[in-house]
Specification:
34% of the residues lie in helices and 19% in strands. The protein is an alpha+beta fold. It has one domain. It has a two-stranded parallel ribbon. Helix 1 runs parallel beside helix 2. It is globular. The mean pLDDT is 88.
Length: 53
């Protein structure tokens, strides 16, 4: 599969039970998400777990 990571993961999430992505940088209290994590949180077809890097 090729293309933008968010789009590819969104397609794969249709047949997945869970997607795990990391958030980028910032402080430990920061809620900042990278573009891929953001796309997954809002568009994945299954639950998404976002973990600190």
């Amino acid at each position: 599969m090729t293309g933008y990571a968010g789009s590819c993961l969104e397609q794969l999430s249709r047949s997945s039970r869970l997607v795990v992505v990391t958030r980028h940088g910032g402080s430990k209290n920061s809620a900042h998400l990278g573009s891929t994590a953001h796309a997954m949180v809002f568009h994945a077809k299954c639950p998404v777990l976002v973990v600190p890097q």
